[in-house]
Amino acid sequence: MTERLWDVEFLAGWEKDEAAERLRVVTKADSAIAAQRAERKISDRVGRYRLCTVSSCRRHRACRTRYDVCTALPPLQQRRISHQRELSAQYAELQKQRRDEAQADADAK
After folding, report:
1. pLDDT tens-digit readout, 59-82
2. Cβ–Cβ < 8 Å for 60, 49
3. Which residues contact 2 (CB under 8 A, 6 or more apart)?
């Protein structure tokens, strides 16, 4: 019989907690990226760049702001059903991209 020199259960639980925390951080970051992409896509679709205070947006005729929300809209108008749909679509696209990258890495091994 081999003697254990460490607490296997504690270490397994610790690693599981660490993995859960990493997933939470990545999910939060992915949600922020998806929100920004959705906001930009909607902004571009309706031509908000014309009203934008950021000169780069007006010059490129598309959203170029580094902010999470479009600066051309009053805060009360930012959340709409179409925005939620676009947000969900962008988040799904980002998750598909991450899945494909992970599968490609697994296939390469």
Report:
1. 888 888 776 666 666 554 555 656
2. yes
3. none
Q: How far is Cα 53 from Cα 59, in angstroms, rounded to an integer? A: 11
Which DSSP state fits 4? Answer: P
Domain ranges (residues) in the chain: 8-108
Looking at the whole model, is its pTM more than 0.70?
no
- Interatomic CA distance for residues 43 and 69, integer angstroms: 9
Torsion of CA 69, 74, 76, 78, to 10 degrees: -30
CB-based burial of residue 31 (10 Å sphere; 0-12 exposed, 13-18 middle, 19+ buried)?
A: middle
Q: Is 39 exposed, middle or buried (0-12, 13-18, 19+ CB in 10 A)?
A: buried
What is the rounded radius of gyration, in angstroms, for the C-alpha atoms of the chain? Answer: 21
Q: How far apart are CA 36 and CA 66, in angstroms?
A: 9
What is the rounded CA–CA span in Å between residue 61 and residue 104?
36
**Residues 39, 68: contact at Cβ < 8 Å?**
yes
